Task: inverse folding
């Protein structure tokens, strides 16, 4: 599978962005969320590895730094454009074919609950070529299989340059297994996401402008 494609930074038609990160991901994700335009017409879902039994304070942490509404995803709710969702701790976050969230308490995947692979694989089935998967810094192989599923279903795949990442294992594993449409430094990924503006067309539930 090629590392790059001619469509690599073309976000026309992207309706969902799923971002996976682990060690070092809080800082990296902060750079990306600050770059999002207020009129973004895609939904964004962030899956970070959260220690078992601890509440997630991530929505509160990022809410003041993001132009979009930021909240924790809830079971059975629809995916809404122009919103940033975080996976809740101690549950796998899946996206159903009708584009609603669902929670699973199946066992840990890659020692993680929530696992990035679970969200990416379900999103790939629901959105196909209308999604972008992004893998950032992390110390496991979680996300590699999910990113491969995204590419198999026609979606875009961006990966943080492992040489820049605080923890290289996760982006390196994603590149080795799935390839990538773009391998970028975090500021390049942020610049790419800044183009998720009203000029794009999205059909999921509601569109924010």
Result:
């Amino acid at each position: 599978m090629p590392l790059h494609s001619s469509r690599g930074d073309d976000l026309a038609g992207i309706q969902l962005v799923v971002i996976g990160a682990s060690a070092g991901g809080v800082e990296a994700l902060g750079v990306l969320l600050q770059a999002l335009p207020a009129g973004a017409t895609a939904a964004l879902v962030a899956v970070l590895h959260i220690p078992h039994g601890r509440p997630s304070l991530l929505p509160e942490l990022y809410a003041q730094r993001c132009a979009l509404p930021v909240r924790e995803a809830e079971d059975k709710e629809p995916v809404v454009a122009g919103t940033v969702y975080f996976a809740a701790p101690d549950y796998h976050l899946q996206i159903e074919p009708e584009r609603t969230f669902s929670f699973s308490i199946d066992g840990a995947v890659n020692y993680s609950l929530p696992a990035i692979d679970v969200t990416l694989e379900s999103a790939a089935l629901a959105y196909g070529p209308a999604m972008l998967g992004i893998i950032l810094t992390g110390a496991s192989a979680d996300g590699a299989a999910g990113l491969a599923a995204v590419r198999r279903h026609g979606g875009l795949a961006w990966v943080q340059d492992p040489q820049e990442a605080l923890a290289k294992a996760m982006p390196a594993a994603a590149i080795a297994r799935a390839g990538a449409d773009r391998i970028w430094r975090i500021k390049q990924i942020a610049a790419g996401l800044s183009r998720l503006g009203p000029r794009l067309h999205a059909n999921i539930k509601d569109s924010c402008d």
In short: Helices lie at 25-34, 58-63, 116-127, 144-152, 169-178, 186-193.
